[in-house]
Each structure stands twice: as structure tokens, then as C-alpha cells.
Amino acid sequence: MEQSHKKKILFVITKSNWGGAQKYVYDLATSLPKELFDVTVVFGGTGPLAEQLSTAGIRTTSIPSLQRDVSIVGDVKSFFSLLSLFKKEKPHIVHVNSSKVSGLGALAGRLTSVPRIIFTCHGWPFNEERSLLSLWSIAFFSWLTVVLSHTTITVSGRDFSDGQKMPWVKHKMCLVHNGIRIPDFKGKEEARAHLTSLARAQGVVITPKDL
After folding, report:
1. What confidence tens digit (pLDDT) does each residue in 138-183 have?
2. Cβ distance 29 to 57 under 8 Å?
3. Which of 49, 50, 140, 171 has its CA 20 to 30 A from that of 62?
4. What is residue 67's predicted lDDT score, i.e. its pLDDT?
5. Distances in Å between the alpha carbon of 209 and those of 22, 185, 200, 206?
6. What is the Cα–Cα distance from 158 to 4, expressed in whole angstroms?
7. Mean pLDDT, residues 74-87
8. Phi, psi for 38 (deg, rounded to 5)
């Protein structure tokens, strides 16, 4: 009864590694008010994203067949897993991220009458170097994902511009740049320690005069 007033959101992403799209999903999933939203993150396999979400107390679901590389058998399994999950969970919102799972998730969402399907494009795959036939195929399925989604978010001006060139879907596109959290340092020493830690994590050696 306690959760009946909450909006149920399923975030869906292909892999549980730690990249830009995964951090995007993590930030959204952990920042939504818990008294208003019931959040679950769905991904393939295990990895840093799963660990970070578990530490943050966010419910997760892993689909073993979900992977980045194209696999007809794996993709069909993943689609029916998503279909079954959406029927069971009955989410108010499905937010799909990354190219392949977004198409599968958007189609599964439509077939299960999910009220709101949001697709975030973290870079159109048809801008990558591929054969002409592959590019045409990828461009078509990218467009189809936008058609199946209610709203498509692009995170860069170039992606928004490319999306605007797609036929009959301009009204579904919006541009939302990734936010940057501004650190709240208590003084210069804390700021220096933070910058030094970041530099070491990147394998960069800095000296006091650099700060």
C-alpha cells in the first residue's frame, strides 16, 4: 500500500560496465526522490554498475542474454525477457539507454502498453565507421526506436541535429546536456586533495606547483 502512489520507473541499459551511459543511468536512478518513484535498473550481466547500484540501495534485474554484440538468438531471448518483465512490473515509465537494447525495450514497451517510453541517445551508431549496408540498416533501426518511443533525449548538439533529419519524428526530439555536479569544497586543501586523487586515478603525476 505504501508504494501505490509512487511512479514505477524501469531504466534499461545493455551492459553493467562503467561508462558514460552507465553513469548517466546511475545518476538518474539514485537522484530521484524515493518517496515519489519506485526505481529498478535492468541490464545485461554483472559489473561495476550493478555493484554501485546495490551499494546505493537501488533494485536491479540482470538479463544474462543481453549483450552489446548482435546475436539473433540472444537478442530474441532478451526481447522476450523484457516483454515478460514489463508485463510483471507494469511500469509507468520505461527509460531505455544504448542503441540495441533501446530498440528491443521500446518495442516490448509498446506491446505491453507502457504509458511512457523514453529513449536517451548517447550517440547515434550510424555515425560510426561501418559498411554502407550496415549504416543503412542501423539508421533504419535507430529511426524505428525513435518512432516506438514517446520522447527521445539527445545529450549533444550534433546528435540532436542528426535526429532532426529523421522523417516524421522531429517533435519527439529534445536536447538535454549532461549535468555536472559542482563540488562543494570546504577549503583549498580539500580541493587540492580532490584534484590530486583524480589525477592519480588517471595516471597523471602532479606537483604542488601545478595546483
Report:
1. 999 999 999 999 999 999 999 999 999 999 999 999 999 987 666 6
2. no
3. 140
4. 81
5. 35, 20, 16, 8
6. 40
7. 96
8. -105, 110
Beta strands 93-97 and 7-15, pairing class: parallel
**pTM assigned to the model:** 0.83
Q: What angle do CA 188, 189, 194 make, to 5 degrees?
A: 95
For the chain, the three-class secondary structure string (H helix, E strand, C coil) is: CCCCCCEEEEEEEEECCCCHHHHHHHHHHHHCCCCCEEEEEEEECCCHHHHHHHHCCCEEEECCCCCCCCCHHHHHHHHHHHHHHHHHHCCCEEEEECHHHHHHHHHHHHHCCCCEEEEEECCCHHHCCCCHHHHHHHHHHHHHHHHHCCEEEECCHHHHHHHHCCCCCHHHEEECCCCCCCCCCCCHHHHHHHHHHHHHHCCCCCCHHHC
Q: Measuring CA to CA, which residue among 130, 170, 131 is closest to residue 147?
A: 170
Using CA atoms, how far residue 68 sits from 13, 165, 172, in Å, is 10, 26, 26
Side chain identity at residue 105, one-letter code: G
